[in-house]
Amino acid sequence: MFVSSKKKQAVIDEAIKGFNEDINNAVLVSSLKENMAVINDLFQDVQVFKTKYIKNDHNEKLRFCIAYSCGVVDKAYIGENIIEPLSSSMTLEDSSNLIATLKEQVIQIPDIEQTNSLLSVVEAISYGDTVLLTDGEAQALVLGTQSFTTRSISEPENERVLNGPKEGFTESFITNLSMLRRRVRTNKLKMKAYTLGRRTKTLCSICYMEDIVNKKILQEVYRRLDKVDLDGVMDSNYIAEFISDSQLSPFRTLGYTERPDTVIARLLEGRIAIIVDGSPSVLTLPFLFIENFQSSEDYYMNFYYTSFTRMLRMFGFFLTLVVPALYISIVAYHHEMLPTQLLLNISIERQGVPLPASIEAFLMLIVFDILRETGVRMPSNVGQALSIVGALVIGQSAVDASMVAAPMIIIVALTGITNLLVPRLSSPVIFLRYLFLLAASLFGFYGLVLAMSAAVIHILNLRSFGVPQLMAAGNLRFQEVKDTFFRAPWRKMLLRPKGFTKNKTRMQPGGDAS
Predict the structure, then answer these.
(1) Could you give the CA distance from residue 365 to residue 161 in angstroms, rounded to a whole number?
(2) Dist. CA 5–CA 7, nearest whole Å
(3) 114 pairs with which residues across the strands?
């Protein structure tokens, strides 16, 4: 007896060694003891891993074992719908096909999958499923018992609107998919599952409208995703850095949003959305540069007002880039561009200031960026007050000590305020603002014009999955510019943006209520 047990243990140890060496190709065997020995070894030192052996009350030869991760499953659900049926069912007593009987008659769970892959078993247990193994069967049942604690649905902090839906994506993958499905009641909305990350096995979903999407762009998305090779994917930006065009550009070539209504609007234009489990930010592509100035609220309010506010955002983007550099180029090089009285007032204010205007501008912008970053990182109830008080105290003290001229405080304040109009462009604005300021400090207005020209050329050459980001450049037909620097009425937006889809017609002419 001792020899027999020793031989059995040796067989199990050999099986464990073989499984661990090549878990990707390993399959289950018919022995429950061997299967559980392998699984227990794989989850060794995993505190949340739990197992429970179950016997049928009417047939003691029927032995089962369930394995799950504590904390990500619903224990009450497991007890009522798995343990209780397995132990009390009389159906299993004379069953010829045990696995089929378990699936169809005994287990009271709608989400059931059958597998013989050890890798699938490990992934299922890690993700919150419960795995049922049966003695004498080389198959396992994966039972959907996930119960994650997630953040409730709320309005995104960075995309608040006065009118329109007040809900945003959360970190729950299924919840995010359901918010899209609820808005589009058609089978044409496809959601293809994808898994990324060698170790995290992060679930992703590629969402698109089957009859609208450009199939070439869709295939290109799959091709780029297949090249993503990381240990783990924690957020959608992990993927964005791999699949985006012009990766060294300060401008984004992929859209991102936390609003379901925005994603649906993009899908209806023929674009593609990528949802990542654990991330509230959804990627949309192809991406147009004009989207940096668009807001969900633009489509929920009167088109006259939203057209004005959109042009205001564009003007604010221009000011936050150019104002410091333009001020330096005039003060340092081109005095003749200012009225005489204004020039005299600025000269009086600058008397006693020890630093040149260009260095003064650089220092003040750096101090402003430090205050802004500090306000973002501090707790919300402290950060805003710290930014305001810090800016007022430092600015006023610097002027009183004659370290900085008062006009420079005004310039920096105007730059910071206009920067808030275009939060999507905050990152590239920082780089371009200093670049423009450096060019203006060295060569005056000519340097500023050259730097602006280089930035415009760079933007004109940006592409997102083969689609130019400035599609309307050089084309002023109404249907091409109807939703760019202004928003046309809905009844006039007949066509979808070109380049996204061959199904261009969004609405037939005369489709309005009148």
Answers:
(1) 30
(2) 5
(3) 141
